[in-house]
Amino acid sequence: MKGNNILPKELNTGGGKNRYKYKPFNALVESLKIDVSYRSDKNQEEPEGFGSFFHDSLESWKEFNLSTHFAIFVREVSQYCQSLPQILYHKEDIVRILEDHLKVKNSLALEPLLDLVTKLARDLEIEFYPYFERIISVIIPLAKRQDVKTLECTFNCIAYLFKYLFNQIIADLNRTYGLIAPLLGEDSQKPYIRRFAAEAFAFLLRNTRGEKLTDIINHIFDLFNEYPTDAYRDGLNMLFYEAAQDTDNNLHDGALNLMRELLNKSYRDSLTCSNIESIYSYRITTSTTIALVHHVKSENFSLLWNFYLDELENLQNILLDKTDFANISQESLTKIGIMLSLVYICLTVRKGSRIKGNFKRIFNIMRNITQYALIKTLSYGYLFFQRQYFKTCVSLITLTGMNGFLAGGKYILDKIFDHDDTDCVLAFAHNVANLRWEHYEKIMLPYIVKYSSTHWEENPKKITLFLANLLSTKNLSIPPGTISSFITKSGLIKFPNAKSKYQNITDGLLRILNQNCDWASEINILNQVDLEAADMQPPHLTLVSAALTVISRVFIPFSEVFNSLSTCIKSLAEFLKSANSTTLLAFSNGPFTHSSPHVLMQNLLGQAIDSLASICQLNSETDDMEKLVKLWDLIIDEILLAYGTNHVVLRGVAGYLDLLRSSKKNDYLFNTKNFEKIYPHLKCNLSSFIHQRRLHSLKILSIFDQFPLITSESSQIDQEFCDIFSIGLQFEEIETAMNTSRNKTILLRKLSSLISTKRVPEFYSEVAPLHCFGVLTINFSDLWSDAIQVLVKFAELNPKKFWILIYNEFTRFNDGTKLEQTGLSETAIQFYFKEDQLFSKSVFRTGGISFECPNLLKYNKANEESQNLIFDKFVNGCIRHYISCCFPDNNRFDPLNYYGLLIKTLIEVPHIAERHSQQLVPLFLQFTNSKYNPVNDDNMMDIDSSGRNDNVQVMDVDDEAKDHVSTPAQSSKGSKPNMVLFLKLFAKFKNPRALHKSAELKDIYLRFLTKGDIKMQTLALNCLLTWKHKGIIAYEENLKNFVDESKFRDELSTFSLSRENGSIGFEHRDEVMPIIIRILYG
């Protein structure tokens, strides 16, 4: 055909703009807009003479909708709608017919019917209102349809009815709201239905004024309070937002009237409720404000901003008229608190970009009410007002910049830090710190230093915890060289001596360390602490931890702090040394640790050593270094060698050794003799799944003098020292992430190359494989293949030692406690990390409307954390800080995966595994019997009831394997990947007859043939083929076809057991048929 060869006349350069693009249901729903209040009807021509919109639309739809449903409707209604007078006369019949046809299930005529309803309402106007409730009751159920077009037509119909019957509906708006309320969420509707209903009813609400607006607002909340669900509240948020917003990112003319009514409703409800933030009217008002801040442009936002400030000024004037605070009513304070919360939202949402730098007025208001916010009282109205005051101050100070601070922020800070309520002031300072304000060190630090010094005696515990959190969370960073009267040249904070007959802050911190206490009872108190209990004193052990954090960053005369820390270290070391099994059993059942509770003291001991090293580093004088050297025997011989598996102790010792190594006078301490003494105690840490343990062990070992690489006698190369620990240290110091994986793999390959040279001294022979075992515990698959290759290279050079090491790793699974190498329990670790999870909330949007803001969530989180730390959960704050000093890791170790990687390593060197079958096979039998036992499978069958299954018997696991239960998996299903790996390993063996318990292995392979899993059957068959029975090998290809899905049917169709033309020789059937029967059963 010639038409197929016709070329286009011009190139299509449209970019596919008119191309149809498929959109899923949610995308189509999000793009719908129901609001019809701005749609003009002027484009529609008025009917001539006695014509009607209804009749004209009916005639039009006759051409567009040819469904049977609509044809029936036309036939029934045509006789009543030829003219407008006829429609008026037969309106009852027309409404009845519409009502009946709208009720038809799965109707194909809904779009024209809904359109005709609006046209009938436009024709009849006031005459249609008596039928309004009947029609709406029929239309509302259509909103449940899952058809986008039907949804659009349904809500457009409702919106047009509201528009055409506005004058009649407005007279009794409560009744209409009762009809539409189920769609707003009273019946738990979906978000898009709530949005469409809100857009439709918003037309009525935004055009209501005066008492009618007050009445409908009260009625809406009365109905809501009967069924106060979150879905319903979201529907009301959308309703009030749609009523207040206008086109072009503006506010509607009636927005301020609506917001005033919502405020008044919040005021009234606050009179009867002490918890203001739980009042639904207040919460809906704040959510509506958030959405409006998102919607309105900055040039249009001044209307709402000035409205809030006017209201706040009026309330402020009421306060200023009262000369005595006792005369100020709770109602006034609550109202100011509500207004401050709305101002806080305007300042915080979108980082205050809608206000356009107009902060002078709000600063003046905050100056005026400051005197009322800094008074000690416990009334609920005042406490709410005070909380909102501090939140607003935080947002003002952090968001207005230095110019805004100088304009009014300095006065506010002066007044706040003159306040005697230490809890309020500390919470405020901590809140600002959590937000990482760029001027914090310059502006806030002098206030904090002065206030902490003058109020230390009033609340030493909270000031200690506050400073510890401030200095340990990187919210306060003081680089050396900072010029300030409160900071030394080395970057330490210098507290002034308070004019008091009592101790100053530095003396108080040292007193916490020097306080004599019963460490055993302190362990018991912390280990048995109830994290949910209230009115509980913080464990002294946690206060010591907080004091150690502060002391390392505060200027204290070196002799004083050194004596206190060394005494503390000696006290802790003596207690741990004297602790026996009796005290261990007495405190071993607490929820805070899962093994020895003495790990709590080990953590504190490590922190004390780390603090001592940090202080000495900033006071690195000759005499100070000599004092450190005198502690060598205590820290190295008594602490490191005894508690070298605790990563906090390792961290402290690493800092101590690094500081000593910096002085050449101490080089004699780092000779190879001391190195040889320390290494055997730390080498087990190299394979630990805890990153901190591997990292600090490698730091310690790399600090010492190293042995030289092996060189031949004829070699002229200068002596080189082995850098195997340095390579491992570089690997651990690099963060594990996608963008750094290449650097880490390069180091692993460098390690492999070092082993390949055969120059590594025997002393280091276990370092590379042990560290690679540790790498395999990291939940990052990009590193595993290179780590396995290093292990393979090591196995080729030293197979005997390789087997000893990898077998030791397998035996760790025999005892579950060997896999739990961290002192803190899972409960304690989850308690530490759950606070962050509570605030990891995503911003929800529907139809382009958002009632949240990331920046607002950030400020709320900072405030909540500060309130919990100082007020609500002070004890929990102490415990959280102690846990943070233990450097917990939330990356869970996956023992099942690690077990599988060990098997993968053996698959690369099957000859070594086969050589040690005496140890490997019991491991496999133990794994199979405890976690993947096909004997207990419901799908097992009796091969032959007459007794031909004699070889199929219950597996007999040796006594050694029965003594322990392996823990790499929790179920047969979870263990399947590792069973697959085991079978792959055994399929590579050359002489299975010589294996330990080869008969039992063969029996297991036969049983796996009955499993309904092609992969398992294939691997089991491959294992059986390694026996190389002559009768089976001859049919190897046929057997493999039976476990190949693509060839199974062909093989089965040609399979025959006849004597003359049988597929299998008669003499081979005894060997082959048991295999085929099992495969076919599986």
UniProtKB/TrEMBL annotation:
It holds the Pfam family UTP20_N. Residues 976-1082 form the U3 small nucleolar RNA-associated protein 20 N-terminal domain. InterPro entries: ARM-like, ARM-type_fold, SSU_processome_comp_20, UTP20_N. GO terms for cellular component: 90S preribosome; small-subunit processome. This is 2348_t:CDS:1. It comes from Acaulospora morrowiae.
